[in-house]
Design goal:
The protein folds into 2 domains: 71 residues, Transcription factor, MADS-box (SRF-like, 3-Layer(aba) Sandwich); 76 residues. Helix content is 71%, strand content 3%. The protein is built from 6 helices and 2 strands, in the order αββααααα. Helix 4 crosses helix 5. The longest helix has 36 residues. Keywords: DNA-binding, Nucleus, Transcription, Transcription regulation. This is MADS-box transcription factor 47-like.
């Protein structure tokens, strides 16, 4: 054995010792089964952690699982990152929708204060139409609710008074 081979063998032994330490930590911290098998070409003996029997048993147990179990337990980093990206994009869409609604409310208030409707561009006009439609839907729902109360024989003035006093029974706190 020459000097280069001995140096390489020492480095491999140190790296394998470090790998086994990390595998043991992973096994304990994450409560997973871990087995390490390493061999060098030309060597007759394989390195195994914790032992060759247990490493083989772990591998055989994994291979015995059917494909659906493997797919449920395992997914690639790409899949994980894609799920994160999808969730972030959905969050961004919701934030953009809220920002657009707030912008249209502000624009509506500006129109009420005297801004000319002729100053609006196409996007603002569409946004305001969407806002008006949402408000119209809310008003129709309230109208239906009020009509139901009227049919039940309740006094509409009493309903309005009740709605304006919401939260007052707790000292103004909801």
């Amino acid at each position: 054995m020459n000097l280069d081979e001995r140096a390489r063998k020492v480095v491999v032994e140190k790296k394998l010792a470090s790998l086994c330490k990390q595998a043991e930590e992973l096994s304990i911290l994450c409560d997973v089964k871990v087995g390490v098998v390493a061999f060098s070409p030309g060597e007759t003996k394989a390195f195994a952690w914790p032992c060759l029997t247990q490493a083989n048993a772990t591998m055989n147990e994994y291979l015995a699982c059917d494909e659906t179990q493997k797919q449920n337990k395992l997914f690639t980093q790409v899949t994980y990152l894609q799920r994160k990206i999808d969730a972030r994009e959905e969050y961004i869409r919701k934030i953009e929708q809220i920002a657009e609604e707030k912008e249209m409310e502000n624009l509506f208030n500006q129109l009420a204060m005297g801004k000319s409707i002729h100053e609006l561009d196409a996007r603002e006009t569409k946004g305001l139409l969407k806002l008006f439609d949402a408000h119209k839907t809310k008003l129709n729902e309230r109208k239906t609710k009020l009509n139901e109360h009227d049919v039940d024989g309740n006094d509409l003035n009493q309903i309005d008074a009740n709605e304006s006093n919401v939260g007052e029974e707790n000292g103004g706190n909801p």
